[in-house]
């Protein structure tokens, strides 16, 4: 069982740590888990939405980390960037599988009456906008959401996203365009509020 999220990130694993982890040496596997725990949890949080899914995000983080550790013997070392892409690929598939089994409930955005009201505090307004953005991301189809999350929150380049999701580069571009267009349409009311 993976321990709760640590506040300290472990350093990136070097080739010797990856080689030891592939040989199932526990100390090296722990290093891998500590290094990946925070980025995998952020991915799960973004993919599963924040509304009442905290426990599920934590559970799937642990499931994904376990899958990553079990798959390590099959990983070919191409450096840290490729290792991260490979690991996030496994985590993304875990999240997509969950979303196919149990889609997120639709969360209503602020009503236009609420958005027309003058908010007394900038922090409240920012929280509402953040919530509206999270709700809009939650409404994206799982494959489109995965592409968007990997680009926007994990700063992966298009080629790495294509490799991670096993899709063509053109499909990555198309999904990102569709995600941005859907988010823009969904959030249009906030700009006029």
Describe the structure.
The chain is an all-alpha fold. It has one domain: Orthogonal Bundle (Arc Repressor Mutant, subunit A), CATH 1.10.10.10. Helix content is 70%, strand content 0%. It is built from nine helices and no strands. The chain has helices at 15-22, 26-48, 54-71, 80-101, 112-116, 122-138, 142-152, 158-165, 169-191. Helix 3 packs across helix 4 (80-101) and helix 6 (122-138) packs antiparallel against helix 9. The longest helix has 23 residues, at 26-48. It is globular, with a radius of gyration of 18 Å. The chain starts with 14 loop residues before the first helix and ends with a helix. Mean pLDDT is 80; it is low at 1-7 and 107-120.
Topology, element by element:
Elements: H1 15-22, H2 26-48, H3 54-71, H4 80-101, H5 112-116, H6 122-138, H7 142-152, H8 158-165, H9 169-191
Short descriptors:
Arc Repressor Mutant, subunit A, 193 residues, globular, mainly alpha
């Amino acid at each position: 069982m993976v321990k709760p999220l640590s506040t300290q990130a472990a350093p990136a694993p070097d080739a010797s740590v990856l080689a030891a982890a592939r040989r199932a040496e526990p100390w090296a596997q722990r290093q891998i888990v500590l290094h990946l725990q925070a980025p995998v949890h952020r991915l799960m949080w973004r993919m599963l939405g924040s509304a009442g899914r905290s426990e599920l995000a934590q559970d799937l983080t642990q499931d994904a980390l376990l899958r990553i550790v079990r798959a390590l013997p099959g990983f070919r070392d191409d450096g840290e960037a490729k290792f991260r892409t490979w690991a996030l690929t496994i985590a993304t598939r875990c999240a997509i599988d969950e979303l196919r089994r149990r889609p997120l409930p639709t969360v209503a955005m602020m009503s236009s009456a609420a958005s027309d009201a003058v908010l007394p505090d900038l922090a409240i307004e920012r929280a509402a906008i953040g919530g509206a953005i999270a709700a809009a991301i939650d409404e994206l189809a799982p494959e489109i959401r995965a592409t968007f999350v990997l680009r926007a929150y994990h700063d992966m380049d298009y080629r790495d996203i294509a490799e991670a999701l096993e899709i063509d580069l053109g499909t990555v571009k198309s999904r990102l365009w569709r995600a941005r267009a859907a988010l823009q349409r969904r959030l249009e009311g906030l700009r006029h509020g």
